Each structure stands twice: as C-alpha cells, then as structure tokens.
Hints:
Layout: E1 3-6, H1 12-21, H2 31-37, E2 43-45, E3 48-51, E4 57-61, E5 64-70, E6 73-83, E7 86-87, H3 93-114, E8 119-123, H4 162-167, H5 171-182, E9 187-189, H6 193-211, H7 218-228, E10 234-239, E11 242-247, E12 250-255
Parallel strand pairs: 6-8
Antiparallel strand pairs: 1-3, 2-5, 3-4, 4-7, 5-6, 9-10, 10-11, 11-12
Helix pairs in contact: 2-7
Amino acid sequence: MLHAVKREAVSKEEWDAFAEASDEAWLWHLYDSQAMLATWRGRKDASFGVRDGKGVLVAIVPLKEVKAVKWGLTLACKMESMGGPAIANGIGKSHREKILKVIRAHLFELAKQNGAFEVNLMLSPMAPAYRGERCPRVNPLLDLGCENTLTQTWVVDLRQSEKEIWEKYSKECRRKIKKASSEESVVEILRKKDSALEQYYPMHLVTYKRTGATPHPKKYFDHIWEMFLPEGRAIFGSSGNSVGLEIDGVVIAQSM
C-alpha cells in the first residue's frame, strides 16, 4: 500500500540516490537542499516521500511551509514546492496515477494541518524530463489538479558552437562581454569560506536591494558552502572586480 513518509524518515543516501536516478528531479530535490532552503525567512521544511507496500521509495516531494509573520503574528501560510513531485523512472501510467493521488491527498492534509491557504508547486526546467525535446506539451502538474501557470526560463545549450551561443545573446549582453574581455582579469576559485562569503554576500544584498527582493540569510550560503562544496556541487569564485556563485556548473549570481 502506498503511503507518505517524512523526509526525516528517509536516509540522506536513499533520498539522494532516488533524486539522482529520477528524470523529474534536479538540484532542488536533493536532501541537503531542503535544509538549505529552510533557512529562507518564514520557511520550515515539510518535504516527504512516498513508499510502496514493499517499502521502496517511489516518489519524493520537496516542500516548505511558508509563513508571512509580522509583529509575531502569522498573517498567512502557504505550502510551496521548488521542484515539484519527482516520481521514479519506469512507473506505469496506472501506478503513477495512484502515486499522484497519494501525493495530492498528503499535500491537502499538510495544508489543512498548517492552515495554508494555497499549495504552490514549481517544476524545475533543468530536470531531464522537462528540457529539450523531452519537454511535455501539457503541464504535468495538471494531473494533481493544479491550475496551469506557465513561466519561461532562458537556457543556453553549451554543446552548441561558440558562434551559435554568441548570436543568441542580446545586444546589451554582447556589449558587456566585449567590455569585460578587453579588461585584464584573473579568475580565482575561493577556497576559504570566510573570505569567499565576505566577497559574495555584500554583492547579494546589493543585488536584492536593487531588484526589491528579500535577501537570503547568510546561513543559506553557509549551507551551500558546507553541504554542496564537499560534493563538488558548488564553486565560489572571483574574477577581477566580479564575484560569482555556481551551483552544479550553473551561474546563479554575479556582479560586474
């Protein structure tokens, strides 16, 4: 019989092995990512997995309880999943529908327990099942009864030639690259945590202030350093007067 289990009831090794094997999972599904994302303001981990009657893990769902708090009072609560459900490869249509039914029921139960007014699920555009020619024509989350809300993610296929990649950049982007290329710069991988975060975090604060977004706590980046660097999933580096952060080889922030 299919049943939901808390993330804490699954070992890190089993959880991550599943995430690595499932085409519907990506970086945000990993075990340590849940603790990392829980450092964001008002967030508490509520991730869970689904086991079958034999105890085999057949799905994982990264999930956060997100509360808006002011003056010590909870103004609103919602459940949010960055990555959405990831189901094991090779699952048949009938069995998949049963798994989704269990996931949906557990999501509603958690929402009820926490007084959440909505449940938001977001699929990762970098998960193998959702990119390139494999990208589904219909939003898979519709099978969970979700409303269809589509967004766009700009992705560059680095397997293309340098010319093909260059032509897809905007005019302004090409101008900035040419300017940076004409200046002398030294790329350095930062290996000391304190010095790396001293360079990166102020840049993060300035960037988020400029865009009006709420900055992430420094503890979030501490988690990246302590949990992702040892496994080769992240790199802190600097180049001239710019500092960048890469996760799984993907630059997610930089300052020129």
